[in-house]
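Can't attach files on this board, so I'm pasting raw text. These are the components:
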Amino acid sequence: MRTMKRSFSHLVLPISILLLLIIINLIKGADYFSITVVNGAFYGNIPNILFGASELVILSIGMTLVTAASRGQDISIGESATISSAVFVLFVLQAGEVTLLVIVVGFLLSCVVGLALGAFNGILVSVFKVQPMIASLILFTGGRSIAFMIDGKLSPILANDISNQIGTVIPGIPIQTPIILTVVFIVCIAMLFKTTNLRLYVETVGINPNAARLNGINPKKIIFLTFLIMGFCTAVAGFIAVNKAGRHDSVNLLKLIMMDAILAVAIGGNPLIGGKFSITGSIIGAYTIEVLNRTLLRLEIEPAMIKVFKAVFIIMLMIIASPVVRASIRKALDRVRTKNPTKGSAAMVSMVSTMDMIGEKGE
Amino acid sequence: MKNTLCILMVLVLLGTGALFAAGQQETGLTKVGIVNLPPEESGYRQANVEDMNSVFSKANGYDSKQTNTGDNSEQIAAAKGYIRDGVDYLLISAANATGWDDTLKSAKDAGIKVILFDRAIDTAPSNYQAALLSDMAFEGKKAVEWVLSLGLDKINLILIRGQMGSAAEIGRSAAVLDAAKAGKLNIVADGTGGDSWSLEEARKVVEAAIAAGKDFNVIYAQNDGMAQGAVQALEAAGISHGKNGKVKVIGFDFNRFALRNVQAGYWDADMQCNPRQAAEISRWIKSGNIPSGTIYQDELLLTTDTITDEDIQNWGINADPGKGVITR
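---
Top answer:
Structure tokens for the assembled complex are below.
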């Protein structure tokens, strides 16, 4: 029991935030979890959340790895996704008749572009030791113009049945396609970490690159690799986003999504200065942000105030989750425990153990 | 020694520049300097930049240069450059509405006529000759008139705003809010697509309204992308829309994909925001009769019943998906 608690203790923060949001939603209306079937597909708040967050989830996975290894963030992910999806659209449109094969080849092509963009950032960061945020600033600044040129200075339309099915539902399958793609992606990443020592290497490099090098791990290679994975993530996210939208809007596609991706990493309990990381935490963090956005809409906050509310909410979460507050809560609880060693009711014991779990995260 | 050489060289370069400038004046072309935003800003701007380039061409008797930047100080620097070059007309679509006073005054002192297009500048009206603008409040009024003319028993409208505080958002929202205040319609949900006029955000606004069990029959989205997102939410929830549908949908901006959706009866209407001011300005310049003050463009509202292929060809912006193709 104790070991299980230990291995999941880092998820207490993101899960408790998510639970808090769900409770708020349930207070607003008890039918929050209700799911109906519309046109052969599941419909309701939960499917909507899973659908809406799919790109963010994929990008926050890549962002977690980049953060852990390079101790910095890639701020060009939205732009990379826009460029790689522009190539995808270009390929599909020049193909004339759109078949599944065309879509698949186009997707693979966009993956190659995504990897190349990831490699570009990766070389700047790993070989030339440029700060990740500065390195990715280049693509962040120029990326949308590049995509605009690839688009032929227009917003090309992707109005074909296959794209539409990728962006919505495939007839006969009751779950929306972006949700399925996200699950497949998560499974692939999980397999990657199950079968390789990548986690150990990334964490080692993130904690101390010099120590890693002395132990035979090449930090350059690992950092480069995380940027490559990030590049792949942006290609997949761009693919999903452009098929959802049905046209390639180089100006607004996944605009400023890096903010939410970085936030997802932080809510996931990952230190933004690298080292130990939890992808599960980031995934929950990404869904939390989606739920937060929708909660604000559900509470019918007026449009001019919605960003303020989001900011206030996030600041509150971050302060509650900060090491200082956690440490003081732990101290207060310790005092209660030592004062009443015998009077502790069952509820108190369970509360203390929860706080312990939160406390362990800070250590 | 080196310094004097450098200065001499700069002087020589400037001298030749002046010579060239003088040489060009003799060709009889009207010199026009255009300060504009970059085409990648939006589909609107893309059409606007192309339009300026094609109208103010050598073939039409113009010697024009266009600077495209979203940075106000770069724009001002470019404008000053055009003033130094001695252009006849200076056309400006400003990134920021403020900070232009000195530049406009020096253009006036140099005898250059300044015409603002698309975007107004906060300055004394005497500092420029004319401004040719889109009247966002007019667009909103026209769109709301259409909503009121639908003959619905009770209008329950979802308002999806653009970037809060932008001229387009303020103008296009005002008419709806006024009508709601006058009791002519009922706003059941009031949301925004945020700073990027986001399709995804618009979709979430409608999804939230559906989840809250709200009854609505009009979606008023302040640009085409957000209207598309709203309709995606309706589709996923199995709510009918467009021609013979329960929910009436109106977008703004005249993207060709949106007009095709209107034509196919997938949406109901679209309100124009015309990016093609060049022809009108050229007409003024050719006739020598340039009006003064702010002039608003006349803009169209097209519905499934009134739209034609020519409208889409002539007035639409951005890529055309082709007749009968619906962009979902």
